[in-house]
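Request: Show me your protein:
***
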Amino acid sequence: MKKLSAALFAAAAMTAFGLQSTATAAEAGSQGNVSVKGWPTGCTNGKYAKGLGGYTALGWQAQCKKSNGGHYKATIICRPFDGGDDIYRDAPVWKSSGKSIVFCPEASIRVEGGIKERSY
């Protein structure tokens, strides 16, 4: 990132002071240690339930078809059976492929869920 910033600053300075030169911008992808990453695409998320010996764990799942260099994970809001504040939980690991799954803790019920995304 520093190399790209320095090159762009130098090109701008040359243009501002009327110096004749040719400058090239970094190509999308990578040049040196600079890389361009994007947001995940083709993402879906929804309810998830898993039977565990007579008990059904309620959770949320998220998955994206292409990571594009970014990452995603499932997130869920749960409500304790005995009242109290809602519990917000995220899947522990950012994923670039496959399913991301998160569950409500014991003695709580799933209220809503979703997906979190980032471009790195």
User: Anything to note?
Assistant: Strands lie at 30-31, 34-35, 41-52, 55-66, 71-80, 87-90, 100-103, 108-118.
